[in-house]
Amino acid sequence: MKRALHRGAVLTAALTALSLSLVACGDDKSGDGGGGGKDPIVIGQVGNYSGQIPGLAGQGYGLQAWVKATNAAGGVDGHQIELHTADAKGDPASEVSQVTQMIGRYKPAAFVGMGLSTIAGSAPTVNKAGIPVIGGNTNDVAWAVDPGLYATGAGLLGTYLQGFFAVPSAGTKTGLVYCKESAGCTGVKTMMFDLGLSKANGGDPVYSAEASLAAPSFTAQCIAAQQAGVQVLAVAFDTSNVIRLAKDCDKQGYHPVYAESGTVPGDSLAAVPAMEGTLAGQADAPWFLTSGPVADQTAAMKKYFPKVPVDSTTVSGWTAGAALGRAIENYLGKNPGGTVDAAAIKKGLGMFKSETLGGLTPPLTFTSSGVQKQTNCAFSIKIQDGKWVQNGTDPVCPPDSIQSTLDSALAALSKG
């Protein structure tokens, strides 16, 4: 059992699990473009399309949908996007190998929408090559400490503040049940209780318990949380086991407000009556929106990948592509006819000043080099009348009064 919080493993299997039947995409080339007189812009993407934790594969498909839709519309300033993908299969060693091979073989100008549990392993490789990484699983502390990584959405702490650490009103009694199988689960406990983020967010943390996902029942945890007076119960499980726990609590007449983050919130959760009122945080605009750029993403997914469910991961992949496109436009706007390479894309990213990509992200501000400061603003959603709805229309930002606590927590996580 791992209790130590390892850098780059803050969110792993239990928080990203989503059972999909997906094909491997090793050395796949996607584009649907061609034509035109301008050179294509080569990018790479490595993700977990198969293996034990394929729950982030949607990021790859969301990115591919953006590439196909963009190329079909003429590309970015006339440049087609040439995307090469590879399947890490949930294996950190394979991830590094795939990234290294892709750099040597294709010389990508950027890695985009990296659907990996952690990018800490390959970060030194891409940084040495001077290649920016744009978007991916930002529920990973590596995005806040490694240079060259550009998080296209809320960072780890921002998403969790609106999710696991959500506090509807000051003084709300909060609790947590977390799985013992994943460092990501125990990491939630570390942040929520040991680093004091629930309390800093206005909550009164009164209960935490570890549980095995293989347990036949979570009744004992439900009773203990109820006896502790927990009003908002964070559950660091995968989706299917969150539902199991909620049903067990329902049988005991216990109906707390559940709190979730990452990829766990989805349509299957909203369909369960016991989950009514659940709160969750999202790094990017919610997948269920029917207007704006999210609707464009949904339409593209239905056109190009009709069998892949639209969820927070597909929006994340699409958003990463949109950020790439904006960076290219920014650079070429200042350097018409210039060569779009890794350095050029970094310069384009450095022009992001409170950029929201049309409402896809919280305001993003980047520099052309170094470690990027993450935003702690995130989208807040909840289950209401059996469906997900957005809490307000804008990302929610934590008060300035807790910034020092957030900084201390991030520093502690980076050393873990």
From TrEMBL:
Signal sequence: where?
1-26
Q: Which organism is it from?
A: Nocardioides mangrovicus
InterPro entries according to UniProt: Leu-bd, Peripla_BP_I
Which family is this sequence assigned to?
Answer: Belongs to the leucine-binding protein family.
What Gene3D superfamilies is this protein classified in? Answer: 3.40.50.2300
Which residues does the UniProt record annotate as the domain Leucine-binding protein? 40-369
**Name of the protein:** Leucine-binding protein domain-containing protein
Question: Which keywords annotate this record?
Answer: Signal
Coiled coil ranges: none
Q: Which PROSITE patterns match?
A: PROKAR_LIPOPROTEIN
